[in-house]
Amino acid sequence: TLMAPLAHGVAVATHRGVHSEALWSRTPFPVADDADGVGALAARLLGDPALRASAARGGAAFYRESFSAE
Question: Is the pTM of this model over 0.90?
Answer without folding.
Answer: no
